[in-house]
Amino acid sequence: MFIILGATTFAQILAFTGATGGTFTLTFNGQPTAPLAFNATAAQVDAALEALSNVGANNIQTSGGPVQNSNVNVFFRRALQQSDQNQLSADGAGLT
């Protein structure tokens, strides 16, 4: 189960439980990330999001994780911090 909690101007929290394998993707403003492993670290989530053309390098910072054990906090920085951001969405269809 995926949960995106606490969407605010500059921070969102990603959490899920029950996965033991597989992959998931995150989508920001219509652009999906490459598949991420069920046990992705915060750094891996950060890299996947920053690879999106509508995010870009150094525009987010993550902490926490890995996602199957703990929340991953996504903080919007720089230009993305200047206005409200749409909530991240997650697709866990590839999780087992």
Distance between the termini: 11 Å
- Based on helices, strands and strand pairing, what is the structural class? mainly beta
C-alpha geometry = globular
Tally the helices.
Answer: 1
Would you report the number of β strands?
A: 8
Radius of gyration: 12 Å
Q: Residue ranges: pLDDT <50 for 5 or more in a row?
A: 1-8
**Helix/strand order, N-terminal first:** EEEEEHEEE
Task: Please report which band the strand proportion falls in: under 5%, 5-15%, 15-25%, 25-35%, 35-45% or over 45%.
Answer: 25-35%
Whole-number mean pLDDT = 83
Q: Order of strands in the sheet with the most strands?
A: 1-2-7-6
- Fraction of residues in helix: under 10%
The major β-sheet equals:
4 strands, antiparallel
